[in-house]
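Handoff note, outgoing to incoming analyst
You'll be picking up this chain. Sequence as last confirmed:
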Amino acid sequence: MMLKADGFDAAIVGQVYDLATSSKRLVYSVDKCVDILVNRDDMNAEEALEYIEFNVSGAYDGDGTPLFMHDKL
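Most recent structure output, in case you need it:
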């Protein structure tokens, strides 16, 4: 079962199949998540990134936990 990050549907960029857990996982763009928080919650980019790293991408909720990728290296 794929889990979703609440409020970040517009930041979904795809899905992967995790061989280790035999489960599908959603993939989110961190940059798009930042944009959502900047526009929706009136955060600046630094605050938004810190919020995502601490409260969203760092949360683990089992096999279907979403993945978060940085668009730029």
